[in-house]
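Minutes, project check-in
Item: structure for the 224-residue chain
Input as provided by the requester:
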Amino acid sequence: MSSTAPAPAPQGRIAQIRETYRITRKADPRTPWILLGVFVAVFGAFLALGFITKSPWFWGIIGLPFAVLAVTFLFTQRATKAAYASVEGQVGAAASVLSALRKGWYVTPAVAMTKNQDFVHRVVGRCGVALVSEAPPSRAGALLANERKRHARFLGETPIYEIQAGDGEGQVPLRKLQRTVMNLPRNLKPAEVAAVRKRLDALTATPLPIPKGPLPKGARMPRG
């Protein structure tokens, strides 16, 4: 018999929500009370309208899904904020955020790195190639320029975009990074994207371990 242990089963939807709630509550202990307050406020408003119109059951039934929707929306927003907080300041935080891009985007973390722990991550998609730096503004420009030259030899006319991730002047904060990448122009067809990925295989470095976190899968944070 093989001694290889079976791969663990994928985490269920309920377990994911429970884990996200745990992390969100840890980041902000007020979360359950805020969610409860929103539910009571929204449901109470509908119920009050029901008593005014002498139809409390009717408006109560209508108000219940609206209250749940309001709580869900608020929880998603707070979970997203907690997700960013869980990786912010860590090495590879930008790569962690980029890895949550939806299907059709291909992320290679740390295609370049320096002794100062400055990184360039590569994203391939319909836009072409986006090189995303993770470094102070004083060093990010030169780092991106070097990588652009290195990639241009393999890419021909394929567009290359440079994005500086960070909180410095002219940089893109983590919370806006996915949206910035996804808003790049669509220049390639899917078949051309596959061809670009194949050409870049020779440049692929050993991936950098990136911080784990409950980042929602999607582009605009949140997008489930």
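Outcome recorded: The helical segments are 13-27, 31-52, 56-87, 93-98, 137-155, 174-182, 190-200.
No further action items on this chain.
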